[in-house]
Design a protein that fits this description.
Layout lengths: L5 E7 L1 H18 L8 E7 L3 H13 L4 E10 L7 E5 L3 H10 L10 E5 L5 H15 L3 E11 L10 E7 L20
Helix pairs in contact: 2-3
């Protein structure tokens, strides 16, 4: 039996999370792609035990206050999990969290919040990227929590769920307060 796979996500405060979820829903319905919870991955696909990950996020959260960072631009790629995303600069808060939670990958860190997963016809995707970039570029997104999430490249998207989370700036545990984020949205 293989160990469960988890990731560490940076999560937007509720109103920005709702805004980003609306964009993911809009694009998912428009292109028939998977629906998922918007997030900024700080560490992906680890078999490290949940208890260790929870201790790590609690420690990291104590040292970084909630912060806002503007979207630099909206871009796309051929990668399934980075097909269409809002890109962010590596600000001091993001660098500190990455350094604390996944220092081995700091050099390749490209902070982003994916807005669409999967392949989409190039011209239609390019048009959507341009449209969403006009709506998002320069818009600040406020991040206020870090979560340990059952998620990974080999975990079905419908099975992704937040196991626990902590608030930035005080490490107040939010265990069990976030619902599972499953499946496609209702039309």
């Amino acid at each position: 039996m293989t160990a469960p796979i988890h990731s560490i996500w940076l999560l937007a405060e509720p109103s920005d999370e709702a805004f980003l979820t609306g964009l993911v829903r809009e694009l998912s319905q428009r292109f028939g792609t998977p629906f998922f919870a918007p997030h900024l991955t700080l560490r992906g696909d680890t078999e490290q035990p949940v208890a260790e990950l929870e201790r790590a996020i609690e420690t990291a959260a104590r040292h970084v206050e909630p912060f806002s960072e503007p979207v630099v631009c909206v871009e796309g790629s051929e990668a399934f999990f980075r097909s269409f995303y809002a890109r962010f600069a590596i600000c001091p808060a993001l660098a500190a969290l990455k350094r604390a939670l996944d220092p081995e990958s700091l050099d390749s860190f490209m902070p982003h919040v994916s807005l669409l997963y999967g392949p989409v016809e190039a011209a239609a995707k390019g048009e959507a990227i341009s449209e969403i970039d006009k709506r998002l570029a320069g818009r600040p997104i406020r991040f206020d929590r870090i979560g340990v999430v059952t998620s990974g490249q080999d975990v079905p998207i419908a099975d992704w769920r937040v196991v626990s989370s902590v608030r930035l700036g005080g490490a107040q545990s939010l265990h069990g307060t976030r619902p599972s984020f499953r499946g496609r949205p209702k039309a």
